[in-house]
Request: fold
Amino acid sequence: MKDSYHDKQTVPGAENICLTETVPVLKIVVFLGAVLLLLFLSLLLGPTGILLPDTATPVGSAIMSLRFNRMIMGLLVGAALSVSGVVFQAVLRNPLAEPYVLGVSGGAGLGATFAILFGAVAAIPLSLPFTAFVSAVATLLLVYGIASRGSGGTPSVYSLILSGVIISAICSSLIMFFVSMASVEGLHNVIWWMLGNLQPAPLSQRLVAALFIASGIAGSMLLASRLNALTLGREMAHYQGINADAVILVALLCATLLAATAVSISGMIGFVGLIVPHVMRAIFGPEHKMLIPLSALGGGTFLAVCDAFARSVLAPIEIPVGVVTAIAGGPFFLLILQRKMKGAWIG
Reply:
């Protein structure tokens, strides 16, 4: 039977696998214009309506600075989660894959919760991203090891997903255990963090996070052509001379770095890694050399706009941005389950 994924292959070389036609320049220009417009809108939105604060006054200047820093946080976190979702979907060949599927976000969340409740963050601010990343990598290795047992060292997509779901559930249970044992102050900090928010982290944390996120996106870009081959199937990747197991492991590490960094500075924000890659794939096609950078930009913009909406829709009450993305992502998840976007996934 002819594989619909194979229909999109146009160049036989492993470094030149192209899944779609070249994206029209006009489409990219329109997209970039929309991004700039939406980012400007995110600066305008606030509890008092749609307007810029008066930067000539100390209060207005402080408000504008806060909005700008939250927009930067949204760009960083949204880009990390979106590219992580792109990589997970390519590696697992599953349109429902995102950073939570393999337990990566749960593992990062467990490490971050531990660092918050046991005072490591107060003593060493940079301990939060470090702990989140180490625990996320440990979770990934645990999932990979469990999935590899009984499969000759080569885990299947289904065993990875099932192992990830189980480990993610265990991590969530451990987080709840630590929360139940926490003091009132610790409970408030962890709950607010678990709901997801873009309150600006200390500058040192943001700089480290930006470095990690840039490294993860760059690593994913270097794997773009190989991710194209993996999307066509493990067998096709093998025929193109690609070591599929090595590519999968490196890709998972890049995606883990991105997801763990995002979790460490913003908390648990779901569905960004699911929604944005699908929308970008539907608009621009599944070629990863284009999909990865466009998803990074689209994801950052989407999260910045969600944050602006969260702080303005029920003013003066501020909704955690993770709640907004969950409300938006739930119906989208059901839409994918009903295979409404199957055509966008396969090209």
User: Anything to note?
Assistant: The longest helix spans residues 58-92.
